[in-house]
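*** Query protein ***
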Amino acid sequence: MQSLQPDPAARYRNVLEALWRIIRTEGLWRPMRGLNVTATGAGPAHALYFACYEKLKKTLSDVIHPGGNSHIANGAAGCVATLLHDAAMNPAEVVKQRMQMYNSPYHRVTDCVRAVWQNEGAGAFYRSYTTQLTMNVPFQAIHFMTYEFLQEHFNPQRRYNPSSHVLSGACAGAVAAAATTPLDVCKTLLNTQESLALNSNITGHITGMASAFRTVYQVGGVTAYFRGVQARVIYQIPSTAIAWSVYEFFKYLITKRQEEWRAAK
């Protein structure tokens, strides 16, 4: 849905139509393409992400607002954590999006990695890194600040409360996703180097955020920056809700076991 000049057979009006037509014309498992490479990248990326966030949040909060919660500390910690997360995740995103494009020539992850490496070099896996950061730094700042803000209202004692983690995570993801959709469209263009967009009086590879913003506007105008916003919000709501609820569960479980172990010594 974010494609600037999609193939006529891949023009979709809404998320449900897109999903139905993809399954009907390309098979039941087509929407799952890229799952394996995403899962491979998500493990180390999220480990770095949450570890960095927790450490910096506590350190900065102690400096800015000792003994309390600081939204500035939450946002700053989220921004720094994003640098590590995206460094691990960016190559996986490039491969995933190229495999998900309509009529993609790649059927296996290894085929895609080999072709990108041979034809465009190792730098292609990080071509969208600066745009990814430009998108994800504000995304994560909004995301973490909204999550912590909602936790203050739904879970002021900061105990393990699954329903509050799910609700806060879902709302935080939706707000952040909608606000950063224009940057996500540019990131998709940089990752895929969409051939029809490149043929629209534009020569060579699209590199850098400024070039991507300019290309999106030339091809589709202002409205092109919000292509796929509905799908992006629908995707982020369960994604962030699951991420936060699972993270908070394991944080509670591990912390509880550590306390029991210390008490038993």
